[in-house]
Amino acid sequence: MTASGSRFLVVDGIRTHVLEEGFGPPVILLHSGEYGACAESSWSSLMPALAEAGYHAVAPDWLGFGRTDKMVDFADPTGRRMRHMAATIEALDLGPAAVVGNSMGGTYLAEDLARDEPGFRAAAAVLVSGGGFVPDNEARRAILDYDLTVDGMARILRTLMFSPALAEDPEYVRWRHRLSLEPGAWQCAASARLRPPGSEGGGEFGKVDTTPYENITVPTLLVAGADDPLRLPGYADEVAARIPDVELVVYPDCGHLPHIEHPERFRDDLLSFLDRRFREEVSS
Length: 284
Known about the structure:
Blueprint: E1 3-11, E2 14-22, E3 26-30, H1 39-43, H2 47-52, E4 56-60, H3 77-92, E5 97-102, H4 104-113, E6 122-128, H5 138-144, H6 150-160, H7 170-180, H8 185-190, E7 220-225, H9 235-240, E8 246-251, H10 258-261, H11 263-283
Parallel strand pairs: 3-4, 3-5, 5-6, 6-7, 7-8
Antiparallel strand pairs: 1-2, 2-4
GO molecular function: hydrolase activity
InterPro entries: AB_hydrolase_1 (IPR000073), AB_hydrolase_fold (IPR029058), Epox_hydrolase-like (IPR000639)
Pfam families: Abhydrolase_6
C-alpha cells in the first residue's frame, strides 16, 4: 500500500486526519500533546526519510489535535483518545506496523503495549521522551500557560528544547504558532491542566506512573534527551530497565523533542532499529 499527502477518514463518527507518505512496511507516528502539536509539526520532516528508506509512514492527528475533530472526554480523556487511535489504526488496515510515539504519543503507546490486549497492535515500538513519571513542575506549567501569541509559542519552544535555535527562528515559530490556531485546538490541549477543586496535581500531570512496563513484549527503542525538563533525571534508565527487549539511547544537549532537535541522528537511529528489529520480522 502507498499514499502521499493528507486525507480524512471517519472513525466512529469522528472526522480523523492522517498524513501518509511512501511504500513498504507501515510505520505509524504518534505526535506529542503540547499546544499546536499535530502530525505535521512532529513528523513532516521525518516522513520523507522513512519513505525514501522503503517504509509507509502514517501520521494520524490525535482526537482533539491538528485537523481531527475537537472533542474531549472529561471522565476519561486518555482512554477516549487511545480507543479512537486504536480504531483509526484498525480502519487504516495496515497490517503489522511499527509504532513511534513522542511525549504524549510515546506515553500512550507504552500504556497500550503493556495491556493484556493492546489496541495499537504494534509489532515494534519507539518511545521518544515517552513513559515514566510526568511531574507537574515549573517547565510543565510554563508550556501549559499559552496565550495564543507568537511570543507565547516561542516560550513553549524554548522550554521544550535544549537549544534556543528554533525558538529564535521567526519562520519556524510562526509555523508552529499557525498550527496552534486550529479552531478548538487550544481548548482541547488546555483541558489537560484542569483539575477538580481540592485535588492534588495539575490535571493529567503529577500522577504516579502505574504502567506495567514488564508486560511489553515487542522490540522497543527508547530515545530520551539528557536535558529533558519535563521528566526527572534518569527516568529513561528506570523505564528501560523494566522493558524486556529494549534498546536505550540518550542524546546529550537535548530536551523533550530529540527527533526535532537532532533530526539526522534520530533518523539514523530509527532506521537502524526498524531495519534490524521490524523489517526483517515482517519480511520473514
